[in-house]
Amino acid sequence: MKTHNYNVFSDEELLALLHQDDTLSLQTIFSRYYTPLTQFSTIFTKDITSSEVLISDLFINLWDNRKQLQIRLLKPYLFQAAKNLSLNHLKKHKPLLEPLENHETLLSEHLTPFEILTNRESQQRILSLINLLPERQREVLLMSRIEQIDKTNIAPLLGITVRTVETTLYQAIKSLRTLLSTSEKKK
């Protein structure tokens, strides 16, 4: 590998160079994945600054542990690590969901107290049902419907194809409808 243009290297080639203490390989991996990893992390943390710190730490750990790490596929490894770091950060610093009070100011300007109460109950019920979905379906549904991320952007963030995003989203909505229907019958 005599070229100085590291951008032509595959992830596997960059990993091999990383194991040989090549700092340019780390810079290339950083350039390739820092922004998408930070965006992905922000989906969980809702805080770009925290996500930037988390992802920077991820790359520091990648460098520090480069000799011990046995990574087969770099991209899925980085996204899984980013997700784990983000979720751990949430456990330490912030509730998983924004308090509903943050939305009440907006709601109260347009709704009656009864409508606010009804919306709050509905929102909590739907969120609790979303938490019952399988992890991948929950991720895709929240990214698509709550974060408003386009399916073509979700695919690279999760390391899956656009078609898989569509299928998973379809399954998530179908499962959520079933859960809602079952929940209504229990009332």
TrEMBL record:
Keyword tags: Sigma factor, Transcription, Transcription regulation
Transcription among keywords: yes
UniProt-listed GO biological process terms: DNA-templated transcription initiation
Listed GO MF terms: DNA binding; sigma factor activity
Name of a matching Pfam family: Sigma70_r4_2
Ranges where the RNA polymerase sigma factor 70 region 4 type domain occurs: 124-176
Keyword Transcription regulation found: yes
Family under the similarity heading: Belongs to the sigma-70 factor family. ECF subfamily.
NCBIfam families in the cross-refs: sigma70-ECF
Designated name of the protein: RNA polymerase sigma factor 70 region 4 type 2 domain-containing protein
Lineage, highest ranks first: Bacteria, Pseudomonadati, Bacteroidota, Sphingobacteriia, Sphingobacteriales
